[in-house]
Amino acid sequence: MAERQVKRKVRRPAQKATQRRGPVHIRLRVGFILVAMVLSVFGGRLVQLQGIDPHSYAAMAAAENVVDVVLPAERGEILDRDGEALADSADGLMVLADPKQTKKDAAAIAAFLAKELGVDYATALAKLRKDGSRFQYIKRQVPATQATAAVEKAAKQGYQGLWTSRDPLRNYPNGDVAANLVGFLGNDQRPLAGLESAFDKHLAGKDGHAEYDATSPISGTRMPLGTNNRVAPVDGNDLKLTIDRDLQYYVQQTLMDAVQKSRAESGMAVVMDTQTGEILSLADYPTFDARDPAASPKTLRGSNALSNVYEPGSVQKVLTVAGLLDQGLVSPSTRIKVPESYMSGGAPIRDWYPHGVEKLTLAGVIAKSSNIGTVMAADKYADGQLREYLSAFGMGRRTGLGLDTESNGLLASPETWNAADEDRIDFGQSISVNAVQMTAALNTIANGGVRIDPSLIAGGATNNSGAEVGTDTAQRTRVVSQDAAAQTAEMMERVINDPVNGTAKQAAVPGYRVSGKTGTAQRVNSECKCYDGTNTVSFGGFAPTDDPRFTVYVAIHDPANGGGGGSVTGPVFSQIMSFALRRYGVPPTGTEPSKMPTGW
Amino acid sequence: MSIAAAPQAPVRGPDRARETTQTRLTAVPAPLPAPTAPRLPFVVLVSMLLVGGVVGLLVFNTSMQQSAFQEQRLQEQATTLAAREQALDGELKKMEDPHKIAAEAKELGMVVPQNAAMLRVPDAKVEGEAAPANRSATPPLHPKVAKPYSVLVAEQKAEDAAAAKKKAAEQAKKKRAQETTQVQEQQRTSPDEAR
Fold first, then answer.
1. What are the domain boundaries of chain A?
2. How far is Cα A437 from Cα A392, in angstroms, rounded to an integer?
3. CATH topology of domain A69-240
4. Residues 254 to 273 of A: which have CB under 8 A from any B CB?
5. Chain A contact probe: residue of B75, B104, B115, B159 with most A CBs at under 10 A
6. Residue of A nearest to B120 (CA)
7. Chain segment B61-94, per-residue pLDDT in tens
8. Beta-strand relationship, A358-361 and A450-452
9. ipTM confidence score
10. Which of A85, A233, A318, A363 is most exposed by smallest CB count within 10 Å?
């Protein structure tokens, strides 16, 4: 009974509830509909996730912990002929700050950074306090060790908001030595000049990257058995030059001294290995410091020796005469009666010194650098012959060192070539060259009449324009006969060793037989396209005369002391030649110097 | 049990059938309970395998994780050492800078020789002319003037260009201002014309 009573007691409210909620089957239906609705929502979501867009969430989940880092490729070094670095790369870091975090301790952090990184206190303070910014460069291209140490130390001292990021460094350990050739990289590591720019593809390499699951994106600790994709970086290739760094330094300093002593505008000097055509040194002054290119004006951040053209003047006579000798039209002892002046194209040609009628041999014409004598001898050329010779000597076209900034020089085309111009071209006016062209032409005489393409790259490399350049691809072409070259070399020796008619005794190197030729040319002003009264003085030559080892060419623009090729550039030539011969241990040949007659 | 076993007998095969014809019907002893392997060792084995596997996996994973941390540490160390090597190499290269060597040589009173003679050992012959070293072949270390002439010229040109640019910009601004005032005037005057 008690149970029944209980049952009743229990049932009663249930019955009441049933009456309240309605019949069972209706409740079931409602429940079923509710369940179905919820389930269909789930189902719809399932279809959305799995059917319509299955990858995005998977990717989001994966990305949560995936770290993708760039593995930087190392840029190739630029080396001198002995493997000494002229430009090399190192890992650097930039130190960055988040002003939002650094603002409150700005003064203390700025003082700390000034001490640790050597940044300017006031500048750093301003950056650390910058409103509305969350990203400020504190210092760029800091050596990795220094930057990491500084940031760690800052964190230890409780300064928040400093971090580092990759910022590769390009070092130019020698400053201005060969900077005119090597060039430099800008702040964003883009090449802006010189070989850095011309051989960028060769040097750059290709960055790799690594993608892996990390325990946290900040620490970067790798999760074992997680995603792990790695594309190894491909480092850039080194670029080995034919430049001799120490010789380059000496040449640059000597040239600088000469330009300053003569109060000149600028100067250039080239040293070439006679037998291989390798450029051992190519100097410009003024030049720039590759470590701080911004300190020099833009016009100086390259090689003027390559890009600038100028009229070579009397050094050119050597080429004119070599061609004549090759044709057998003259000999070194050909007698020439040189008048006071010589009419050509309606204007008189004069010599650099006043004289009456002079009796000179061809050797004397060269030794004394007589314009008139040269023109008279060159009259023996048939039409177009001189131009052919000059073209074969490499005038009017790039030497192909691989630098795109090189100029072509100016050699009149066969159509515009005329007799009056030819008379002036005989002694190096109305023709423009760059310093390397002239050196290569003189080197042809030194190398027994065979011209070698000058090269700046040891071995070979392909530059950005796709040209394969270097010693491997240097061409050799015969321009004049061996006899013609040897005779020219001996005549050039008289320039230096003839006590009466020689014009460049200062260019002598004691103990050695030296051949050379002076040049003084009027300069064409680029603005008025006229001769503006300033000169280019130059000296080119080689030693030892009977077995040449080096060809050296020096040109100085607008010396204010009124000096000529012999007095301004002669001593520079002598110093550089003497240094090179000594450095490479070239002994004197010990033969008797030339005593070719210069007068009659 | 026996009742249950009896109808099964003929199914068992002819051997058992033969036996029944030969022997009298007797109570079949209760068959031995099916030989069951003790359960406990099996359960223990399986649990051990399970637990061992899980623990082993855990230990393996942990050790992997640990080596990942170690790898990370070593990687950082390698990076630091590589950076240090680079820094030292950089310092060495800076010391090899010809400018620096020349400066130090000068401090020691060294000069570049003008000319040197060479001694040929086999026949003890001296070649070339030696000259006493003075300073004449030693170039100066630094430029004598702060800025060479062409730099001054270039800077002057840059200044001129900047000045010209500024002037042109000012003129352009003036012109624009004039034009706008003209336009404004035209706009002011046009309604008058309309009237």
1. 2-42, 69-240, 245-583
2. 11
3. Penicillin-binding protein 2a (Domain 2) (3.90.1310)
4. 254, 256-257, 259-260, 263-266
5. B115
6. A587
7. 889 888 888 888 898 888 888 888 888 888 898 8
8. unpaired
9. 0.76
10. A233
